[in-house]
Design goal:
heterodimer, A: 172 residues, mainly beta, six-stranded antiparallel β-sheet, five-stranded antiparallel β-sheet, 9% helix, 44% strand, B: 384 residues, globular
Amino acid sequence: MALYPPPAVPQFPAGYAPQPSDMDGWIQSTFGFLTNNIIFRAEQHTAQALTAGTNTVIQYNTILEDPFSGWTGAADYWWTAPYSGWYEITATVEVSTSSVSVSSMIEITGNITYEVALLPTPAFPGGCSGSYTVYLAGGSDYVQGIAYSSGTATLNSTAGRYSALEISFVSE
Amino acid sequence: VPAYELPEPANWITGDLISAPALRQQVSNTVGFLTGVPMFVGTQQTTSQALTNATGTAVTIDTEYWDNYNGHLVGTDGNTYYAMVAGWYMVESHVPLSYSGTTGTVSAGMTANSNGTVATGWGQRVNNCAAESVAVSVHLTEMVNVGTFGSGDYIQAYAYQNEGATQDLRNYLTGPISVPYLKAKWICANTGQANLALPTNPNWPSPPTYITSAFLNTNIQQTIQFLAYPPILEWHYNAGSANLASQTTLPTGAGTLLGFDTEIVDNYGAYNTGTHLWTAPVAGTYYCYGQVGITTGAGGQAMAAGLTVTSSNYFGGTTATIWGGCQSTAASTNYAAIVRRKLRFNAGDTVNLAGFQHDSGAASAVVEGTTSWGTRMIIVWVSA
């Protein structure tokens, strides 16, 4: 799949004889970006431990989609925006521990944390999911998924119950 | 306010001049509009709004982060985003409650004026807890009467709590930021050409190959049509008469299928009311949201919403459910649990909503329809 950066609006100058490469830049790459959005999807398949009452960076170990190669693994576990713009971030936290309160959070560049969901779990594997749309500076701002549990807990390692971080570009 | 409007996709005819004005009208407008679609992102963080017990309330948004079409003002109608451009919008919200007791519930929702009809739809409803619960909501809504601040179609975030007395929304700005949040984003035109193939965006021809009308119609007209009118879906279950049996464990295979009877939007006709399956019309990554609304029995303890998928991308191709995680429930109460994921599908893969609930007396729960906390599914194409 070809990758294209967020485009400027093409101007199509009058009185100019375009080459095929000009048309590729004005049309193929602009529509190409709108068709092939910037996407990142990751899951944590390991039973990562959560300390009671502490915000914990989720160490996603399965990168499902990252065409723009924004992911940095151990020991950072963050995704860096390849280009500046508004990004929709969805974070899901799933634990295998019962009867705790669980929160899903998104941390931006290590210094701003947004809590996007929180609920009490029953005597079953619980979890929650939330979303936030933020502006990220390309090449510098990065995103981490954060889990909180009111009691000692572990992230769920059963298929279909994984914690996840999903990011898509929404606007320049 | 951006100057670009989606064009009426032109049909190119052999002999047409490929002029700069025509390309600007078609391509520049499309790129300009779709790279900066109408979107509002705002929060409430300067005042903690009081919520009257058991009363749905519009959430005042006092801080704007993005409003590129000026559909919102802080102060005047501060709880309302007026749509400036017609189309389908995805509305996401969440509401944190500043209450650390365990009595009652909190819920997030949306009220919209859609073409003159005002209605409130509720999202997740969860029990309150000592850590202070946060409920979330996702809706699609069609904006038709647009373009004037203060009148016409609009969107509001809604909040509800029933602790028994008035409780405030939470405005925490230190530590994790935990504030009421509203996002409304244009996602699709109201009308358009459906059932198109994914654009392939090939290189432009080099001599001696020449540009044909067929090339232009495939790679400009149909590409604009697809991008302006991508596959979106929201279906509801309105009958409210089904039962969801109690289960002792959350299934590891496929969960109990829940079907829908009322289409809100399904522009590619991708949902089958016989099988209750959504079939991916084109390959890509999709935003998927499922919500299960039930009224618990006397022994209600837990519930969850899930998305049952049949795709080679998941579970080795075996049909199984991606769960949203269980939430606690109490007796004889109308709750809603949600699942929200971005998932990649191949054309032909299927998805259905699944529900789970556990009752200590093994009693069934009622799957809710048009009551406050109902059952629905949203799927929106995001990327090839």
